[in-house]
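Handout, page 2. Input:
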Amino acid sequence: MSDTLTHFNEQNRARMVDITEKHVTHRTAVVRSRVIMKSETLTRIKEGQISKGDVLGVAQVAGIMAAKKTADLIPMCHPLPLTGVDIQFTDNGVDTLHIEATAKTKGMTGVEMEALTAASVTALTVYDMCKAMDKEMIIGPTYLVAKEGGKSGTFVNDIEVLIEAKK
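Output:
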């Protein structure tokens, strides 16, 4: 892993990294996030009893749309032709909604930022749709689980082991 900061030019000013010479490869990134909430909130989400509508359906579409707009939100991100974005939900049956966002492309740079944006906006949308009944929701942590493709190959994050150990 390199510790070189690549988003600075010779004058120490911001630049978009030149990826012209990079090879096109299949690239995938998986990100997880969660929203911790009151048990009643999770129950109402699952039963479709939130007055603003289908929370998971709206949040899923919001996450996909956000992934497609990542380069508009993050200044140094390259605009990417995404070949797939998927948002999956699970829950612990008590108070936590788990979000997993997967982004894919066939390109010259990775899709980590797109997957991170998708998961973040998905969680924010859940918060927005449920805040009238539960302002105490907590979002996060949000983190890269794994990535594949490119010169650096496969990366798998050990963070889940650390998160479980802190419980």
